[in-house]
Amino acid sequence: MSGTTPAIIAENLHKRYGGTVAVDDVSLHVEAGAVLGVLGTNGAGKTTTVEMIAGLRRPDRGRVGVLGLDPRRDRAKVRQVLGVQLQQAYLHGALTVAELIGLYRSFYPAPRPAEELLELVGLGEQRAVRFEKLSGGQQQRLSIALALAGRPRVVILDELTTGLDPRARRQMWKTIERLRDEDVTIVLVSHAMEEVERLCDHVALLDAGRVVAFDTPAGLVSRAGAENLDEAFVALTGKELEEAQ
Amino acid sequence: MSTAIETRRPGARAWLTLIQCEAKMVARDTAGLIVPIGLPLLILVTSATAAGDQVVAGGRTALDLFVLPLVLTMVIATIGIINMPSFLAYYRRSGILRRLSVTPASPVMVLVAQVVVSVLQAALGIAAALAVAGLLFGANPPAALGRALGVFALAMAAMYALGMMVAAVAPTPNSAVAIGLVLFFALGAVGGMFGGRQALPEPVAEFGGWLPFGAAVDALSAAWAGAAVEPAQLLSLGATVVVGAAVAGLLFRWE
């Protein structure tokens, strides 16, 4: 895929909260149609990084481009082509799954059909259930469906499968593979090595706000002289990757 | 690559869907209905019983000229300045606004949907209160109905503009209620909410008549009597709408 324009460019991003440096000079490029996994322990700066790419947080320094647009300055344009699943977000609690899907679809000119969205995340049977009555995993799946409602060309998913049961997790993986087949560019924040190995073309390993390694999953393993990605992670960061469930 | 992306803002269908969704949220939250629908009736009944039925001017009684304008102003000020911002602040706190911020929905859409749904509820409550005022307490309609409706709409817009300003600056739902209450009582106190402005020191009473609460009461009272409304009062209300909406739009935060 070399030679194509990057769909996402992040250059020298810095972000500090009070005295704490959350992101310290992070640069990332994601080719159009590629899947990038962002790995790291809690507090490594993953969420802050992707939220700066999504235009939710203003970098103290550095530059972000999504399909050649600045997500803060060109907000109206970027929002049409970028779908985001946030780690910390809530939806109208008293609305049902179907109503929320209808609402979020209405924001886009050519949305994905509601039935397709329900099927992608396996919530067909919960369509008449209010958001506040859904389990945590179901709420997360709905949040993913809403990120895909506008047929985005770029998708940012923060903690795709954390907290999902194995069946739902495999279903989300299939969904990501389907998006990949549609040439959607995807940034995946993850705790799960298996997920990253299966889905991602490249992995950015974050530690203490910096990118300590950027490679293909196989490249990371061989670079670290490890047997698998788990071991590579420990070798490259000196930390165990806890699976936040 | 960017040239391929056209700016297409959400259209009428999106606005309508958001308004419908907000209305469903409100209808399913029974506690939230108490203030806009129950409050007008409560304030009316407690105030109207004290008003005499002697004609003051133009065939209108003290109830028509003093009590009803004050009741209506109190109701729209409560809903606009205290009730509406608390909902918006809750949306911000819970992350609903944050989630909407990564969609093409604009702040204006969110604010307008909130106001529309709030106006619908308030209209229900006020209609019920006015019906009771007419049927049980013998209240008369305004001598200048069109003028009264116009003044009322402008006053309502001014109160919502103040409320949107509160919602824009308040960091938490609790602080939204606190700021709203302070603003409500301050405007109300100098605007004649506690026993009429004539009881206040002259400069304060004069000043209070210029502020939105006092201006709304006086302008409604004039319209009810069929008298001309003072341009200064309309100017005060109009300026509040413009300033409030501008500040709310500039300071709007998704989180």
UniProtKB/TrEMBL annotation, chain A:
Cellular location(s): Cell membrane
Keywords: Antibiotic resistance, ATP-binding, Nucleotide-binding, Transport
Domain ABC transporter intervals: 8-233
GO MF annotations, alphabetized: ATP binding; ATP hydrolysis activity
Pfam families: ABC_tran
Membrane topology recorded in Swiss-Prot or TrEMBL: Peripheral membrane protein
GO cellular component entries: plasma membrane
An annotated GO BP: response to antibiotic
InterPro entries hit by this protein: AAA+_ATPase, ABC_transporter-like_ATP-bd, ABC_transporter-like_CS, ABC_transporter_ATP-binding, P-loop_NTPase
Protein name: ABC-2 type transport system ATP-binding protein
Major subcellular location class: membrane
Automatic annotation (TrEMBL), chain B:
Molecular function GO terms recorded: ABC-type transporter activity
Protein localization: Membrane
Transmembrane segments: 33-53, 65-91, 111-137, 149-170, 176-195, 233-252
Keywords: Antibiotic resistance, Membrane, Transmembrane, Transmembrane helix
GO terms of biological process kind: response to antibiotic
InterPro entries found in the cross-reference section: ABC-2_transporter, ABC2_TM, ABC_2_transport
Domain of life of the organism encoding this protein: Bacteria
UniProt membrane topology term: Multi-pass membrane protein
Pfam families the UniProt entry points to: ABC2_membrane
ABC-2 type transporter transmembrane domain mapped to chain residues: 15-221
Keyword Transmembrane helix listed: yes
GO CC term, one of those recorded: ATP-binding cassette (ABC) transporter complex
PANTHER family listed in its UniProt record: DOXORUBICIN RESISTANCE ABC TRANSPORTER PERMEASE PROTEIN DRRC-RELATED, TRANSPORT PERMEASE PROTEIN
Record-given protein name: ABC-2 type transport system permease protein
